Amino acid sequence: MTQRTLVLLKPDAVERGLVGAILARYEAKGLGIAAMDLRVIDGDFSDRHYAEHLEQPFYPGLRTFITSGPLVALVVEGERAVEAVRALNGATDGIKAAPGTVRGDHSTSGSRNLVHASDSPESAAREIALWFPALDPTPGR
Ligand code: CMP
């Protein structure tokens, strides 16, 4: 089942020069890029993206971090792309993330963890509409 998912290469990934290495992992897996943009977001946009986390104790720090510099937003497309990208990214906490994953290989943090990916097809549809309103969340369009 071909899907699309929203992926963020967070400001730490851009600052550390890991954009190309992370994209190469998705491409090597056989996934494609349907949209991609380098941008800086403000606090209001962060609140919309992370709507379900607004009340979490970690959210103020996450908001400061995600708005701190340029990030790369992209829509990744391919077979079961939601699950595939989350498997490639690894667990949220870089220490717990398995070696061989993006976070397991490159992060020791549970917050500066390089990447975000939609956690379900429903989240993907919402997040793609927020970040790329002109793009159809359905593959191949
Ligand atoms: P992300 O996939 O972008 O979705 C929510 C983000 O919140 C997550 O990655 C982490 O960056 C951050 N996060 C989740 N849990 C914690 C935590 N316990 N402490 C700090 N940040 C967290």
From TrEMBL:
Keywords linked to the UniProt accession:
ATP-binding, Cytoplasm, Kinase, Magnesium, Metal-binding, Nucleotide metabolism, Nucleotide-binding, Phosphoprotein, Transferase
**A GO cellular-component term linked to this record:** cytoplasm
Give any Pfam family that matches: NDK
UniProt main location, coarse: cytoplasm
Stretches for region Disordered:
96-121
- InterPro entries in the cross-refs: NDK-like_dom, NDK-like_dom_sf, Nucleoside_diP_kinase, Nucleoside_diP_kinase_AS
Q: Where in the cell is it found?
A: Cytoplasm
- Give its E.C. classification number: 2.7.4.6
Q: Does the keyword Transferase apply?
A: yes
Q: List the Gene Ontology MF annotations in alphabetical order.
A: ATP binding; metal ion binding; nucleoside diphosphate kinase activity
Question: Active site annotated at which positions?
Answer: H116
The EC class name is transferase
Which reactions appear under catalytic activity for this entry?
a 2'-deoxyribonucleoside 5'-diphosphate + ATP = a 2'-deoxyribonucleoside 5'-triphosphate + ADP; a ribonucleoside 5'-diphosphate + ATP = a ribonucleoside 5'-triphosphate + ADP
Q: What does this protein do?
A: Major role in the synthesis of nucleoside triphosphates other than ATP. The ATP gamma phosphate is transferred to the NDP beta phosphate via a ping-pong mechanism, using a phosphorylated active-site intermediate.
Question: Which proteins does it associate with, and in what oligomeric form?
Answer: Homotetramer.
HAMAP family attached to this UniProt entry? NDP_kinase
- Which family is annotated? Belongs to the NDK family.
Q: Which PANTHER family match?
A: NUCLEOSIDE DIPHOSPHATE KINASE (PTHR11349)
NCBIfam families in alphabetical order: PRK00668.1
Identification of the protein by name: Nucleoside diphosphate kinase
